[in-house]
Amino acid sequence: MTHHELIIYTDGASRGNPGPGGYGVILKWGTREKELSQGYRLTTNNRMELLAVIAGLEALTKKGVPIVIYSDSQYVVNAVQKGWLKKWISTNFAGGKKNKDLWLRYARLAEDHAVRFVWVKGHADNAYNNRCDKLATTAADGKDLLVDEGYESENS
């Protein structure tokens, strides 16, 4: 098989919204897999869903590889696929659109890659998505939680 695309499964979770949160990511390249996860002391579910995508893209060393990202977040998938994000950026997130810091981080990363999103039903029968959910919730419940600077500085 010569054509390769990188597959990234992502999930975010928060215990309370806002509350402690975490993300889980699985990067899959052929038969190779890598898992990433991290917890934060105070954040939101949407931020963790988006940060999972960002963490997956930030882990990449090659540019221009076709990437398919599986997410159960309609917020993330629709914002990109339906062009909401382009509009938010062009209006500088007018009208109180949230998570500007993360969306701008995502937008910069997306410029280097051919990214396509696929929405998957959460907590269903996709083993990778379920594993990401477990990584995310375990991270949220863990010790050594990081500070989600973007969230806490906006909401303090």
Record keyword descriptors for this entry.
38% helix, globular, 156 residues, 5 strands, 5-stranded mixed β-sheet, single chain, 6 helices, alpha/beta
Question: Which helices and strands occur, and which strands form pairs?
Answer:
Layout: E1 6-14, E2 19-29, E3 32-43, H1 45-58, E4 66-71, H2 74-81, H3 84-90, H4 100-110, E5 114-119, H5 127-140, H6 149-154
Parallel strand pairs: 1-4, 4-5
Antiparallel strand pairs: 1-2, 2-3
Written description of the protein model:
Helices cover 38% and strands 28% of the residues. It has 156 residues and is of the alpha/beta class. A five-stranded mixed beta sheet has the order 3-2-1-4-5.
Distance between the termini: 51 Å
Strand order of the largest sheet: 3-2-1-4-5
Q: Can you tell me the number of structural domains?
A: 1
Number of helices: 6
> What is the general shape?
globular
What is the CATH first-level class name? Alpha Beta
Count of β-strands: 5
What is the third-level CATH name, the topology? Answer: Nucleotidyltransferase, domain 5
Structural class: alpha/beta
How much beta, percentage-wise?
Answer: 25-35%
Residues in helix, %: 25-40%
Radius of gyration based on Cα positions? 15 Å
Report the uncertain regions: none
Mean pLDDT: 94
CATH homologous superfamily placement: Ribonuclease H-like superfamily/Ribonuclease H
